[in-house]
């Protein structure tokens, strides 16, 4: 074959040009994921590149053909705390003016490299629709049992959003943050199609939670440590239980978060007629009946009773403001509690304990799968423990309307079988406090 170019320098030029068209691999977006910025009609796209490039999202309604809409954003460099000080660039672009419930196609990147095309459905607006969520915690890059089924569910359009209740990758900072990269690539088939909403867990602790804060984009201005958002008939509050345990990063964080929680709960209660459900998510539970020495196995757990058993405890706060449902993880198992306050069971009635419950309902769902495998339960369940499942899986949460919520536990060990199924029913009025 005849050489394409007669001299070495034009060969270089040709090579350069062809790279310019296809894009340098360092400029190609990866680890693409979505989050909802708590602004009706919007969605944020976050991704990573290895060199600084512009941040653009092209989107539209057609699967094929040109993508007519454009949104620009910004990027910020992130330097991991490991010895290699690996540096990468996190891009954030918020799409606005989306039509509620409509499916969009998008790609992200810059002229130096584009992602493949992804699809998502814009969230509906207002309180009068029925959001479906996948909820789980403790999903690792190693042994991510729930992920294949979550992918299939996502492709079938089963959910509107994901709640990942802390503990990612195990750990995102590990191997100079390469484990974080691997994890973010693994979840892309789910997280690039659904808003992937998070809270920090103990495994994010390294370098003051910096991998967590940098990689996710949650609403508010606390780098995802605590925030809240509205979704259909629910107000969802995400917070950090970790501020109670890693005090060396700042004791002031416990107090700041507590005061924020209180004012957010007050606001949510003013709006309660419109959005009756208040749902919290935090990593470490107040109660659990696992056979380990975790905080939740102690009678006066820190999350429940606060620092030194009396400062900034969350059980009283959540009870006082009538929180309906509390989602937790950390224990690698599934446990549902009877409605509870201060170790007392407050069933609505013996026949229908979750109809008009007189205390909050707790769900612990941390069995999505990670290298640490499953956590055993104590031999004898406590009187406040309703259901315990030591199997890999995740939770489906269907917020049907202002009075009815459906909770199901999917078992991956049993090929997707529903191993727990319960409705929580609360009247529209009288939800600001439990009486
Ligand atoms: C850790 O991060 C929080 C905010 O994300 C900050 O307020 C705090 O001062 C940091 N602590 C240290 C020791 O850097
Ligand atoms: C709550 O309801 C469950 C289911 O009917 C029952 O087993 C349990 O004993 C009840 N607890 C109390 C304190 O009434
Ligand atoms: C919610 O849905 C349930 C089941 O369909 C129904 O019985 C109930 O009346 C609905 N509540 C509201 C407030 O629409």
From TrEMBL:
Enzyme class: hydrolase
Every Purple acid phosphatase C-terminal domain range: 359-420
Entry-linked InterPro entries: Calcineurin-like_PHP, Metallo-depent_PP-like, MPP_PAP, PAPs_C, PAPs_N, Purple_acid_Pase-like_N
Regions that span the bilayer: none
UniProt keyword Lipid metabolism present: no
Annotated keywords: Glycoprotein, Hydrolase, Signal
Calcineurin-like phosphoesterase domain boundaries: 132-334
Keyword Lyase attached: no
Purple acid phosphatase N-terminal domain boundaries: 29-121
Signal peptide: 1-23
Reactions catalysed according to its record: a phosphate monoester + H2O = an alcohol + phosphate
EC number, UniProt record: 3.1.3.2
GO MF, one annotated term: metal ion binding
Family affiliation: Belongs to the metallophosphoesterase superfamily. Purple acid phosphatase family.
Protein name listed in UniProt: Purple acid phosphatase
Organism of this sequence: Canis lupus familiaris
């Amino acid at each position: 074959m005849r050489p394409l170019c007669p001299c070495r320098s034009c060969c270089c030029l040709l090579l350069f040009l062809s790279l310019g068209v296809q894009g340098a691999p360092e400029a190609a977006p990866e680890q693409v994921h979505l989050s909802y910025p708590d602004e009706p009609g919007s969605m944020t796209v976050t991704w990573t590149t290895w060199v600084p490039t512009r941040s653009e999202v092209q989107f539209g309604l057609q699967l094929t053909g040109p993508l007519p809409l454009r949104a620009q954003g910004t990027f910020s460099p992130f330097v991991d705390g490991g010895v290699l000080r690996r540096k990468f660039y996190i891009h954030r672009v918020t799409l606005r003016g989306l039509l509620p419930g409509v499916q969009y196609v998008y790609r992200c990147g810059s002229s130096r490299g584009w992602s493949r095309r992804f699809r998502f459905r814009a969230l509906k607006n207002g309180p009068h629709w029925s959001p479906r969520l996948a909820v789980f915690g403790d999903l690792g890059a190693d042994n991510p049992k729930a992920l294949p089924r979550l992918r299939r569910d996502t492709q079938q359009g089963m959910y509107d959003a994901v709640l990942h209740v802390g503990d990612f990758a195990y750990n995102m900072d590990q191997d100079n943050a390469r484990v974080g990269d691997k994890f973010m690539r693994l979840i892309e088939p789910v997280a690039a199609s659904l808003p992937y909403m998070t809270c920090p867990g103990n495994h994010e602790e390294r370098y003051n939670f910096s991998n967590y804060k940098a990689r996710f984009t949650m609403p508010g201005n606390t780098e995802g440590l605590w925030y809240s958002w509205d979704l259909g008939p629910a107000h969802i509050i995400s917070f950090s239980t970790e501020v109670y345990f890693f005090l060396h990063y700042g004791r002031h964080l416990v107090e700041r978060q507590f005061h924020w929680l209180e004012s957010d709960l007050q606001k949510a209660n003013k709006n309660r007629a419109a959005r009756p459900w208040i749902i919290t998510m935090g990593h470490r539970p107040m109660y659990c009946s696992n056979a380990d020495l975790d905080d939740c196995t102690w009678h006066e757990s820190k999350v429940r009773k606060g620092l030194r058993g009396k400062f900034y405890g969350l059980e009283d706060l959540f009870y006082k403001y009538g929180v309906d449902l509390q989602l937790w993880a950390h224990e690698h198992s599934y446990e549902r509690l009877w409605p509870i306050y201060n170790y007392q069971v407050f069933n609505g009635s013996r026949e229908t304990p979750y109809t008009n419950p007189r205390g909050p309902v707790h769900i612990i769902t941390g069995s999505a799968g990670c290298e640490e495998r499953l956590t055993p339960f104590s031999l004898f369940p406590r009187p406040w423990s309703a259901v315990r499942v030591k199997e890999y899986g995740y939770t489906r949460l269907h917020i049907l309307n202002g009075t009815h919520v459906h909770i199901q536990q999917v078992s991956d060990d049993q090929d997707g079988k529903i191993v727990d199924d319960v409705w929580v029913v609360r009247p529209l009025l009288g939800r600001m406090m439990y009486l």
